[in-house]
Design goal:
It is built from six helices and nine strands; from the N terminus they run ββββαααβαββαββα. With about 240 residues, it is of the alpha+beta class. The strands form two sheets. The chain has a five-stranded mixed beta sheet. A four-stranded antiparallel beta sheet has the order 7-6-8-9, with helices on both faces. Strand 8 and strand 9 form a beta hairpin. The longest helix is centred in the last third of the chain and has 26 residues. It starts with 13 loop residues before the first strand and ends with a helix. One of its GO terms (molecular function) is tRNA nucleotidyltransferase activity.
Length: about 240
Amino acid sequence: MRPSGRQLNEMREVSIETNVTKHAEGSCMIKMGDTHVLCTATLEARVPPFIKGSGLGWVTAEYGMLPRSTTSRMRREAAAGKQGGRTVEIQRLIGRSLRAGVDRVALGERQITIDCDVIQADGGTRCASITGGWVALRLAVNKLLKAGDIVTDPLISPVAAISCGIYAGQPVLDLDYPEDSEAGVDGNFIMLGNKNLIEVQMSAEGSVFSRDQMNQLMDLAEKGVEELAAKQLEATA
């Protein structure tokens, strides 16, 4: 039995509320169980110097956790004067994951920055950030299309992410913190809406896993991404 009482292939309750901030070109609050992330998208008529003049657009991301998003207060990284390695790794993951679903030629020479701020953490914050980040990106691109600034939709497919792992010897979908902290194996699966893989992060923690178990986790991840993509499309319809 999972601590939450969920079935092995059952996700936490997912909700996506859009247009939650006044100024951002796209925004949403995604809730996956007790993990809550605010995602905003900012449009800018510029690109990084390394692609300037190429005609290609750029999507990038920043990620952060609020001091009381966890059970004890974390010091703000700004107060420390630098970002931690985990933060840098996650925001790079979010950026490259979202870019995988974008036709950068159709986007044109402009940048969209996705900011993901974790309000409350209970496991799976990077997966929630990617999934909610795509919703904010979709809303921002919709504004470009409506204004006639671009004529072709640059978003190829929804991009969503879900965690899976081996908990108490069983493959489970969408780990919350009690499961994540004790899982023998855990992984993050980032996919397009058509289930093509963008990235897989898997590691054994105190255990090992077989090819069959990995295939079971892949099957669970596909189910989770299918459900998330449906939520994304419903939220942005």
